[in-house]
């Protein structure tokens, strides 16, 4: 069975095929009839062991727009609370004739583990601090839409790189497509292995902004860290928060991205988030078409559609 467990397992051609398919679905969504009958024989379970707004709703909408049948599972209201294991939980769901599982889980590698133990296509919707492949795909798709191409673009990823699945998946995706990638943030939040990924580090935020075409502003993942990692939210905002003052000091326009949820006034001010520099809501919009593409391409390997 094929899966989407991480960008690490894709090549450039896979990414281009997903984007071309997403282009088609974006056109469909923009028409007044937003649905295609492609996946009428497919049933998908969305199983979320961690909170989500964008990813969960975006997958659900993508599945509905493809005419798949869906079931939604939230761990908090399930028999996981009575001690049922992940594999038992998923095998019970699969026994109800489910073909594909979209899973978010707090443990890095949870999707990889599940794929080895159950007989269904697995899509990783975020596994702890490891990977968030569909986020990276929609991010690159949005850069391509705004700037025409990802190849050759200078992309800066700012903030909590250490705990960010969005950062790791973006780094893999951007490097595959020939972008230059730099990270910027407090030293305590930049992993030691970052150089091994072909990524450089710049600790001076203003210098890093002057270098880039695109700044992807990450949320500080307080839920994944010991509070002693970084002094305070106020200090973070002062050193690494993106303000209009910082943007106005540049001699060019840069594109501002954020995967959400935003801490307004910390990673970006409201003025920046709501400005014409920002493609934050385009990212969310594109998430549906990109996820339709991923689901459609995986489903076509399960059933002839
Ligand atoms: N970007 C993202 O993964 O957001 P959610 O946690 O709301 O799904």
From TrEMBL:
Pathway: Pyrimidine metabolism; UMP biosynthesis via de novo pathway; (S)-dihydroorotate from bicarbonate: step 2/3. Carbamoyl phosphate binds at residues 54-55, 104, 132, 135, 260-261. Its EC number is 2.1.3.2. GO terms for biological process: 'de novo' pyrimidine nucleobase biosynthetic process; 'de novo' UMP biosynthetic process; amino acid metabolic process. GO terms for molecular function: amino acid binding; aspartate carbamoyltransferase activity. Residues 3-145 form the Aspartate/ornithine carbamoyltransferase carbamoyl-P binding domain. Residues 152-297 form the Aspartate/ornithine carbamoyltransferase Asp/Orn-binding domain. L-aspartate binds at residues 82, 165, 219. It catalyses: carbamoyl phosphate + L-aspartate = N-carbamoyl-L-aspartate + phosphate + H(+). Keywords: Pyrimidine biosynthesis, Transferase. It comes from the Bacteria. PROSITE patterns: CARBAMOYLTRANSFERASE. Heterododecamer (2C3:3R2) of six catalytic PyrB chains organized as two trimers (C3), and six regulatory PyrI chains organized as three dimers (R2). PANTHER family: ASPARTATE CARBAMOYLTRANSFERASE (PTHR45753:SF6), ORNITHINE CARBAMOYLTRANSFERASE, MITOCHONDRIAL (PTHR45753). This is Aspartate carbamoyltransferase. It comes from Sediminicola luteus. The gene is pyrB.
